[in-house]
Predict the 3D structure of the following.
Amino acid sequence: MTMIDSSPSQNSGAAGEPSAVRLETDGDLAFIVIDNPPVNASSVAVRSGLLDAIEGMSADPNIKAGIIIGAGSTFVAGSDIKEFGRALPPPELPTVLAAIEACPKPIAAAIHGAALGGGLELALACDARIALADAIVGLPEVTLGMIPGAGGTQRLPRLTGIAKALDLVTSGRRIGAREAAKLGIIDHVVEGTSLRDGAAEFVRALSGKRVVAELSVPYEPEETIAAAEQNALKSGRGREAVAEAVKAVKNAAVLPVREALAEERATFQRLRNSEEAAALRYNFFAERQAGKLDGSAKARAVKTVGVVGAGTMGAGIAAVCAAASLDVILVDASAASLEAGKGRVTAALTDLHRVGKLKAASAEEAAGHVAYANDIAALAGVDLIIEAVFEDMQVKTGVLQRLATTVRADAVIATNTSYLDLDQLAEATNRPQDVIGLHFFAPVHRMRLLEVVRGAKSDPAALATGVWLAKTIGKLPIIAGVCEGFIGNRIYAKYRAQCEFMLEEGALPRELDTAMEDLGFSMGPFAVSDLSGLDIAWAMRKRKAATRDPRERYVGIADQICEMGRLGRKTGAGWYDYSAGSGRGAVDPVVTELVQAESRKQGRPQKAFAKAEMQGRVLGTILNEAALLLAEGIARSAAEIDLVLVNGFGFSKFRGGPIFQASRKTPAEVDAMVEAAAQATGFGFRRGDVASLIAGVGN
Ligand code: COA
């Protein structure tokens, strides 16, 4: 058995504080243990601890070699992303890596959990890399708007070749230890013994130093590299971080390594301070908070999921559960609906297989997780039920009541309502504690957002079950309270209405769509309407017509478009004309005429809108509604509202989100935008505390 003698820390922190790195000796080996919970991120304490430890082992004549290893559940998850928003405190990572290379004794990295970003760069500067089979490695910097900054773009290609390095660095993809071993990144995968023992054995057999930076880049044909470059640039869609990563990796073949390292560092420093990197960091931390629940409630155990309603949403939900290898029973009343549902499930699973998002090896295998039934009675034994029938209070109430008396007493009952009052639905079941909302977005198998709705009486464990489901099926859970439209649809309704106000004041659909696309939305609101169909919103407007306050500003243009039978792409025309076939849709003079005639009729002053004005009004509208949602406790934070707009409404994650964007403006600019939105809305505009909302972004 190996005995480890702990030696005193080389970099003890303040009195009583555990140090982030400690040196332990085992015979002639030194274990340099990184202990910086939760994920051993390479913070300044870790970097200076490493320097001390390397110095310590170098000076000790009894030590022949060193092994860097992580305490806890992982090696090093990367540089400390929290430090990236300001000047990096010295020593910086390249200094540490240079010390490893300059150390006359070999130093290896022993990897378990994850070696990502700066963590993998640390390992690449070592003389050997040993890993457990389930460890993962990767350079995800481009997903944070940067490039690797501590030699990743220079050392990796010396092991894998340029083409493979281009793929890994520009995609940020994480790969398992076995794949990494095949590519030459990992020298040895430990099996049948502990990581420490396996690493010790491997290192004792090393003949000396092997400095990766001094290796030559393996030869590859020009065409192989050119193909990898094209592929990377195509997937990178014009993003600067990707283009810079390509350039840096290619430098490995042409520049002296020290020169290429200096260039890489300079690019990293520049991109680290970019707006895109700041937005992506904001998203990163927001996502980590999103699934966290207040309190200690544990999810109820779920093995089988029941889905009621085999329409577009229900079938999509069944498919994403099956894709995660959950067993599903999909219920619909008629054989024909079930048959159609089966087709939708298969189509979604085939699509998920195509993009590599199936746990199973094939769509057929995943489809085997779905059973079909024509009666709710089939759900008597399931653990979680998701009701996805027609969006109508009476219909949903009937189904939920039936479910409540059919399913087990400890089962969670979720409804996929978009607009109905969850508390009213929950009360109708007589077991409101078991009821939550799971608001999926269409197409379910593509959209990452899932609003997990907390009813007034939802048991925290039922809510935790919803969050658990979201994570299990690869969705991003955002907890929302009960109100019409929850977070996303409530903001979107105000945003659309504001765009329609501008239609009435002289703007045209294409101008507005283009302005919104420049603001950060992947599609403008009129193009979105055409894609999803105008009829659902039309039906809802008709339902609400009787209760609408006549003093509220109401734009009737959309109703007139619908009355002309223009219901969007599916009818060949909507806000735009699609008669030319696929594509963006052409501006239609009929719509232009209609918009202008209606505007004249309303007697609103007409003007030419500057793009910034359109964007400012929309941003003001979104911010105000977001502030109300936060104050009402419907949303938990500004960052979670941004996540909703990014993951459910196509706002660019590279711009953080509308609230993040507003946090880059002055308070006076924000006030002016909200004021413009208020003026245009007129009656019924409730003002939210936008300043507090933006303060929550916390830059
Ligand atoms: N820097 C700072 N904090 C980090 C971090 C990093 N590189 N990586 C993770 N964290 C923090 C998270 O914010 C979270 O903090 P919290 O508990 O205060 O919310 C905590 O570590 C745990 O992270 P989480 O993602 O919830 O844990 P996990 O076990 O699900 O996943 C990882 C672990 C390592 C796979 C995942 O955290 C990850 O992918 N990290 C990012 C790695 C990365 O991009 N590195 C490159 C940086 S250039």
